[in-house]
Amino acid sequence: MLGVGSSAEGAGAGAEGDAASRASHPGAGIPPAPCPSVPSRHGAGKAEDTFKTPPFHLDLWFYFTLQNWVLDFGRPIAMIILPLEWFPLNKPSAGDYFHMAYNVITPFLLLKLIERSPKTLPRSMVYVSIITFVMGASIHLVGDSVNHRLIFSGYQHHLSVRENPIIRNLKPETLGGRGVPPAAPPGVPPTPQIP
């Protein structure tokens, strides 16, 4: 019979042939990597765990949504509903309190979100990001607060600074640029004064 030898010869020839084929093909002795879509016989649970999608953090989503709706969307509504007499112009308004709460609560929510992230960032990068966010939100708070006070004081945004009634009625008059003009350097004509 062709191709069939004794068991000792067949085993020896097969082993030599397998060794020769493994040597000629690098990586042939390494078992193939398991396919994520086809579970293997052993360790099927581990393969599924590594390819699981990250969990959705419903609690953080709820807190971010609630904070955004109450503190950001509700801010102008609170300013409309609450009477102005409760918040004189030399005190923070309802909108300012909403902004302050936003500036205090959001960094903690962001830290919690970063803490749950599967990838870790360097601590310094996390802190610089949070500080940058708080500084930006604080600058927005100051700008919004100043704008609110200017509008309720009678400032009109469509007019230039010198033409605004609030600037024209400033006392002393030198504050509005209507008093004694500053001394012009030699050779430069003086600036015209508003009557």
Description:
- With 195 residues, the chain is mainly alpha-helical.
- The chain has 6 helices and no strands.
- The protein has a domain at 58-153.
- It is elongated and about 90 Å long.
- The N and C termini lie far apart (124 Å).
- Residues 1-11 have low confidence and may be disordered.
> What structural class do the secondary elements suggest?
mainly alpha
What sort of overall outline do the alpha carbons produce when their principal axes are compared? elongated
Number of helices: 6
Strand content: under 5%
Overall mean confidence score, pLDDT: 73
Query: How much helical structure, as a percent, in the residues?
Result: 40-55%
Uncertain spans: 1-11
Q: What's the SSE pattern?
A: HHHHHH
Give the N-terminus to C-terminus distance in angstroms. 124 Å
Radius of gyration: 37 Å
